[in-house]
Write a structure and sequence with these properties.
Strand order of the largest sheet: 1-3-2
Helix content: 55-70%
Distance between the termini: 40 Å
């Protein structure tokens, strides 16, 4: 696996890790996985993304190219979001000034880690599976920083607005991922957050992470029932 048009930084060796590096380490620790990759080495800027000729240019985007047996990835995250999180560190608390940008970064890093892990074992993964896991990751990360699950669910899943330029099939994919993640988040809130059984929530999240899409949806249906 290689970084497509990426800058190779040394974030893991810096005295103070960047926001992207810290989110990667946090997610890998949360799920007890290890990519052995540095997300910063795969980050591209706006000019590099434009050079790929992408049709859409959202604030976060994982670009993937498959050729023969090699997978190339590049991650774009709006530099303004990174700068904002460096100024308003989410580790010190989530609030109106950093919540959206934190979720943006978690989504991008979530996509990167999940696809890297699947590629390492040559497991195919759908766009819906990537989106669903990212939505769950955002909820998990936010709840661990701010235990008010009701507020987190409202911000993530109820106050959501999809981009106007999304094609119909892509819009439906995002809507499905949003709705299914909300169902799972409600079950986590009810079963684990409210009774303060966070160790059990983490165990459930780790089991969920290792399931394929159909089993993830089955797990959600059972948990929500």
């Amino acid at each position: 696996m290689r970084a497509g048009g990426a800058r190779h930084g040394g974030a893991r060796h810096d005295a103070r890790l960047s926001v992207l590096a810290r989110v990667q380490l946090g997610l890998e620790a949360l799920y007890r996985v290890e990519t052995r990759l540095d997300v910063e080495a795969f980050v591209i800027d706006e000019h590099e993304r434009e050079a790929t000729g992408v049709a859409r240019a959202p604030r976060e985007q994982l670009l993937v190219r498959q050729s023969d047996d090699e997978l190339s990835m590049a991650l774009f995250v709006d530099a303004r979001a990174i700068d904002n999180l460096e100024r308003h560190d989410p580790a010190g608390g989530l609030h109106a000034g950093n919540f959206a940008d934190f979720c943006l970064v978690v989504e991008g890093v979530s996509h990167f880690i999940y696809l890297a892990l699947c590629a390492a074992v040559e497991r195919r993964v759908s766009a819906l599976e990537l989106e669903l896991q990212a939505e769950v990751d955002k909820f998990a990360c936010c709840v661990l920083l701010q235990p008010d699950a009701v507020d987190v669910r409202r911000r993530l899943f109820r106050d959501v607005r999809f981009a106007d330029d999304l094609p119909p099939l892509e819009r439906e994919r995002y809507r499905t991922a949003n709705d299914e993640a909300d169902r799972y988040a409600e079950s986590l809130q009810r079963r684990f957050v409210e009774p303060e059984r966070l160790d059990e929530m983490l165990a459930d999240l780790r089991r969920f992470y290792r399931l394929g899409l159909s089993d993830k949806l089955g797990h959600i249906a059972r948990a929500a029932g």
